[in-house]
Specification:
The protein is of the alpha/beta class and about 375 residues long. It contains 19 helices and 6 strands. Helix content is about 65%, strand content about 5%. The longest helix is centred in the first third of the chain and has 28 residues.
């Protein structure tokens, strides 16, 4: 279903909202919490390969919903008496500090038992050491259904808010804190088996090659780098192409990823500024290419950005925006075809261009068979 929705950004947004509201409505029909149903819907969406694009589409609506939730929470709290709110302050503060502090050793213990190294275990504990807004949702539901008294409700609310504050404050100093504790946690590194189990399979977003949009030019470039042992990240917005690569190239250095290349959040999330080279093979993506070129020029001017176009005017614009090299397809095709003419003119008319044409037909036919319905869009 979502493979169909993913063919259009607008359809993906509408389909996601429809799915979330549908699951919430179904839970309401069977007398279950619609809020919990929406949570389950979101959890299932998190497993999709389109989750980053979905998150980007619904983020403004999510932020608006959170604002409304906290406004409603404020109205609920305003119904409480001042002595009820102050009565839970001491307990809320103590429990919040326990949540912030004790989560870290708990995750270190679990990491040790799971044979994780010290740094990821510490960071997991230091990042999730807070009560989430989901706790507030449950507290509000329990209070509305008279399962919690006002005192317990205000204690949970204070735990969430105070742990938010202290945890967010600690996030600013995670690096120095870990450096101070790294020697104490070194015993976990010798026991860790994480690298042995997944070292070669993990895609590291540093020193990688980024290629945007699948076409013949993109696959030639991807094959070139993959054959030399480079990790290649191929981005495209067509779910059929992503599925084709998962089936045909799952065990190669080429990793296909469903992403909107024109989204600045994607450039940061996929570490364009840490790549070896960023190459755009987009057809008609001139505005996005100009924006990426300017962004890289500002964030990481040493990273080469290469773009493709068939227009002389666009070529000059891309160079002006900071592109290191522009693949002008008609120019390269003309140069390449001149070399082909020099090779074929010595042959008899009966044989001239025959082998080249048959080879081109064969390669195109293989591409059609591999991509299926997606072939018409490439």
């Amino acid at each position: 279903l979502f493979k169909f929705f993913a063919q259009s950004g607008e359809l993906l947004f509408i389909g996601t909202l429809g799915y979330g509201m549908g699951v919430a409505g179904l839970c309401e029909v069977i007398h279950f919490s619609s809020g919990i149903g929406a949570f389950f819907a979101g959890a299932t969406l998190a497993a999709l390969p389109y989750r980053h694009e979905i998150e980007d589409k619904v983020e403004p609506l999510k932020a608006f919903g959170i604002i409304l939730f906290f406004m409603g929470l404020g109205f609920d709290i305003s119904e409480l008496k001042p002595e009820q709110m102050l009565g839970g302050l001491t307990e809320g503060l103590i429990l919040a500090i326990l949540v912030v502090v004790l989560t870290i050793p708990l995750m270190l213990f679990l990491g040790y038992m799971s044979r994780l190294s010290g740094k990821p275990s510490f960071l997991m504990g230091a990042i999730i050491n807070q009560s989430s807004e989901f706790s507030l949702m449950l507290a509000v539901l329990c209070w509305q259904y008279k399962l919690f008294d006002p005192h317990l409700f205000i204690v949970i609310t204070l735990v969430v808010l105070i742990s938010f504050f202290f945890s967010s404050l600690g996030h600013q100093f995670l690096g120095p804190i870990y450096n101070a504790l790294s020697k104490l946690l070194s015993f976990m590194d010798g026991r860790s088996t994480a690298e042995a189990e997944s070292g070669t399979e993990e895609f590291v977003l540093e020193g990688h090659v980024v290629i945007m949009e699948y076409n013949e030019l993109a696959i030639e470039i991807a094959d070139f780098y993959a054959q030399r042992g480079q990790q290649v990240l191929l981005l495209d917005l067509d779910p059929h192409i992503i599925e084709h690569f998962e089936n045909q190239h799952a065990h190669t250095n080429i990793h296909a990823h469903y992403s909107n290349m024109a989204d600045p959040d994607v450039w940061e999330d996929l570490a364009f500024n840490k790549a070896k080279v960023v190459i755009s093979c987009m057809d008609g993506g001139q505005e996005a290419e100009l924006a990426i070129s300017r962004w890289l020029k500002k964030e990481s001017p040493d990273i080469p950005f290469i773009a493709a176009t068939s227009s002389h005017e666009e070529t000059l614009e891309l160079y002006g925006a900071g592109a290191r090299y522009v693949i002008q397809t008609e120019y390269l095709a003309a140069k390449s075809f001149r070399n082909m003419f020099e090779m074929e003119e010595t042959k008899q008319p009966k044989e001239a261009f025959r082998d080249a044409g048959e080879s081109h037909f064969s390669e195109t036919k293989k591409l059609q068979e591999g991509l299926g319905e997606a072939f018409a869009k490439v």
